[in-house]
Amino acid sequence: MSKVLLVGKGPSARTALESLADKFHVVGVIRNARSRGGQEDEVQRRARELNVPILTDTSMRALEQAVVEHRPDCTVISSYDRILNAPILDRCRFVNVHYALLPQYRGLAAVQWGLINTERELGITIHVITNDLDAGNILYQDRITADPGDTAADIYSKLNEIQHRVLGATVERYLGGYAGVAQDESAATYACARLPEDSEISWSDSTKRIDAQIRAFHQALSIPYPEAYTYLKARRISIMRAAPVRNALRYAGRVPGRVVGRSSVDGYVDVLSGDGVLRIYEVMTEDSVVRPAPSVITSTQQTLGLRTADLLERIDELAERLDKFQASAKG
C-alpha cells in the first residue's frame, strides 16, 4: 500500500484524513496541537482512531524532516499557510487541495474573498504542487453554488464533503500516472492573505458587501482572526448575525453607520450602510459574550464605526480615571 503524509492545519483536515486513509497508509498528520479545555479536536480524535500520528511541529523544516523520515509516495496539503520551496518539493510528489476554482483566487483565504466578492460559484481544486503559487496541473475540480445567507462555515462544509468523496481516489489516480491538466495562466487571479484588520466593517460600503463580509468572517472559522467588527463609542463589537433589509426606507440624508431603527421586542437594530439598511440581530462585546443587538446598541442617536468624537470622549474618560487613580495614590 502506498504511503502518504498529510499536512492539515485548518478545518478541512478531518475529511482529508478520512479520504486518504481509505486508500493509503497515512504515515502522519502535520497539524498544530490545538485543544480547548484539554479536549482533543476532531482531527486529533479521528487520527487517534485511525492510528495515525499527529506531528505538531508545522514549520517548513519539520515538514521536510517528516518527508525524509517517513519517505511518503506523496505528501498531501489540505490547508497550510506557507509556500513550499524547491528543496522540499524535490523530496517526493506533492498534491494540494485548494478551496477555489483555480486559476482564480490563488493564495490564502480564497473562500472568504469569494464570499466577500459575492461570487455565485465557488469550488474545490486538487492540483500538483509546483514552485509557483497554486499553479500546478489540475487533477480534479468541482464547483458549488453559494446560496444566499451561506457563511464561510457553510461553504467549507459543502467543500469538505466533496474532498471526503474524491481526494483519496484523485491522489491514487495521480500516483498511477495521470498528469492532470495545465492551468490557464492568462486567467489567474490572486487573493491577499487575511489580516485581522480586514474584518473591520466600513459602513460606507454597500449593504450587500457588508452582509457578505459578516458571513465570510463567520465565527466558526475566525480563530485566530476576529469576526466582522465595528465600534460603538470607541469600543469594539463583533457582528455575529445580520441580514439586509428588503424594501428599506430611502434616506436622502444618509450617515453610514447611523442607527435608524431598533426593536427590543423583535430583537434587532437597523443600521445605514452606503446604499441601504442592514438589520443586526446579534453582537459580541469585548467580554466575548454574544448578546441581542438591542441590549448593546441602545439608541437611534448612536452611530457605529470609529468616530473622532467617540475617540475624544474615550480619551477624556481614560484621563479622568487616571486623575482619580493618581489622587488616590497620593492620599
Describe the structure.
With 331 residues, the chain is α/β, with parallel strands linked by helices. The chain has two domains: 3-191, 3-Layer(aba) Sandwich (Rossmann fold); 196-313, Formyl transferase, C-terminal domain (Methionyl-tRNA Fmet Formyltransferase, Chain A, domain 2), CATH 3.10.25. Helices cover 30% and strands 24% of the residues. It has nine helices and 15 strands. The chain has a seven-stranded mixed β-sheet with strand order 3-2-1-4-5-7-8, sandwiched between helices. Strands 10, 11, 12, 13, 14 and 15 form a six-stranded antiparallel β-sheet that branches. A two-stranded parallel ribbon has the order 6-9. Helix 1 links the parallel strand 1 (3-7) and strand 2 (25-30). Helix 1 runs parallel beside helix 2 (42-49) and helix 1 runs parallel beside helix 6 (152-175). The longest helix has 24 residues, at 152-175.
Q: Outline of this structure?
A:
The protein has 331 residues and is α/β, with parallel strands linked by helices. It has helices spanning 13-21, 42-49, 60-70, 86-89, 110-116, 152-175, 207-216, 293-296, 308-330; strands at 3-7, 25-30, 54-55, 74-77, 93-98, 106-107, 121-128, 138-145, 190-191, 229-232, 235-244, 259-263, 268-272, 277-284, 290-292.
